[in-house]
Amino acid sequence: MSIRLSSVSVRLGDVDVLHDVSLDLDARTVAVIGENGSGKSTFARLLGGLVAHSAGELRILGLNPAKQSAELRRRIALVFSNPDSQIVMPTVAEDVAFSLRAERLRADDLRERVVVELERFGLTALAEHASHDLSGGQKQLLALCGAFVRRPELVIADEPTAYLDARNARRVAGHLFEDAGHRLVLVTHDLELAARCDLAVLFAGGTVAAVGEPAAILAEYETILKC
Amino acid sequence: MLTLYRPGDGLLHRMAAGPKTLLLLTVVLGVSLLPSTWWAAAVAGGVAILAYAGAGLGDRMLGMRELAKQLFSIRWIIVITVAGQLIFLGPEPAVANTARVTAAIVLAALLVLTTRVTALLDALERGLSPLRHLRLDPQRMALLLTVTLSTVPILARLAGEVRDAQRARGGRAHLRLFAVPFLVVALKHADELGDALTARGVR
To answer: N or C terminus of chain B: which is more exposed, having fewer CB within 10 Å?
Structure first.
């Protein structure tokens, strides 16, 4: 996976929301679990280049986010829990196409990439539909579609199934875990999803409490939850 | 929703976004410069009706259903404009000025009704490219204008949600009680939108 953090801290205002995080993640799918306020989402935002680290060394896909942010953003995609905040354009097809603007593709190539991705996510019939009038599940599929159309090497998903019913949560998870040549960092409270990953990281109090096989980490987390 | 693209195959739909913007800008400017007389009010109204009828908006009523929707969505602007001027200027200037303002708004809305946002974004980028000489980034400016346009319906929805939340808690309709939470959710949305643009590779 090539995510390496060495004594990384993130300071927001006067508070260290992440402190002294050291990780070397090399797995196709990584689950990030922990209680609310444990630093999971800040970790996801750090990997996505939305917050800067205040101390330590950080390399994502071999790149330094502080100096190579443009290159990093080209190679990674972020998916948030609230799909409404990710939709930018008024119609479904336009919103997916918006993700490809930076690539400056020819109109035909752009159209083809959008059509293929809409088909993959089951959104073809909704291509001309107003994107903000979709159901919650359809909006999250659109957000995923907009992320995957860029063919990212790394997808960082922060609680992508939080607002979804069981059927839509399964559909979204199916796309995230599908081997489409990407690696996945999944921040989640859904322990069943976490168990499907190759590796799990447990956050507590703004730092890493444990890293390892999901079964062992989930058992440790269950013990914490019972305290 | 105030404005949103309506699929269609009329003349305006087929026009390229750049020339269409210039055409509508010229018509809006022409309407704005009309004198404050009864006949000017009739001309402003007539131009708006003809433009919607000829736009091919596919509402099966020669664009009049869409025009009515647009007028309804700006009803308070019309009421406030006409009422204020009736008091200070009299009926003829009040009606003529309101007709000019209303016609200009609904004519401008035709641009968004008949142009895909992506086409508008491309046209704006091209149109603003000379600003590079002033060290301004046309891509960023075009994106700012386009995102502003597409955020209007979202803000309308957020306003509805704030009102619903107040009603659900038994709150009375009050401008200050509405404005503060609306400002908070609008700023939160702006923050999230910034993150979304960054996450999707926009610098």
So the answer is: C
**Tell me: the pLDDT tens digits for A49-76?**
888 999 999 999 999 888 888 888 889 9
B193 touches chain A (CB under 8 A): yes
Please answer yes or no on whether B196 and A80 come within 8 Å at the CB atom: yes
Q: B5 and chain A: CB distance < 8 Å anywhere?
A: yes
Hey, is the C-beta of B198 within 8 angstroms of any chain A C-beta?
Answer: yes
Contact between chains at B200 and A88 (C-beta distance less than 8 A): yes
Closest B-chain CA to A150: B200
What band does B3 get if pLDDT is binned at 50, 70 and 90?
Answer: very low
Chain A residues closer than 8 Å to B121 by CB: 101
Quote the minimal CA–CA distance from B169 to chain A in Å: 23
Q: Using alpha carbons, select from A60, A69, A72, A73 the residue that is nearest to residue A24.
A: A60
Q: Does A81 touch chain B (CB under 8 A)?
A: no
Amino acid at B159: A
* Crossing angle of helices B17-32 and B91-114, rounded to 10°: 180
Measure the CA–CA gap between A182 and A176, rounded to whole angstroms: 9
A99 touches B: beta carbon within 8 Å: yes
- ipTM score for this prediction: 0.74
CB B99 within 8 A of CB B44: yes
Does any CB of chain B come closer than 8 Å to the CB of residue A48?
yes
d(CA A117, CA B98): 47
pTM for the full model? 0.79
Between chains, do A88 and B7 touch, taking CB under 8 Å as contact? Answer: no
Q: Which residues make beta-bridge pairs with A4? A: A24, A59
Q: How far apart are CA B150 and CA A98, in angstroms?
A: 13
Q: How far apart, in whole angstroms, are the C-alpha atoms of residue A167 and residue B9?
A: 38
pLDDT given at position A1 = 57
**Mean pLDDT, chain A, whole residue set:** 90
Residues in chain A with CB shorter than 8 Å from the CB of B113 are: none
Q: Residue A187 is inside which H or E element, if any?
A: strand A183-187
Q: What is the pLDDT of residues B4-23, one digit of tens each?
A: 678 788 888 999 998 999 99
According to the model, what pLDDT value does residue B203 have? Answer: 65
Which of A106-115, B146-155, B191-200 shows the lowest per-residue confidence on average (mean pLDDT)? B146-155
* CB A200, CB A31: distance < 8 Å: yes
SS3 A34: strand
Determine the average pLDDT of the residues in B57-68: 85
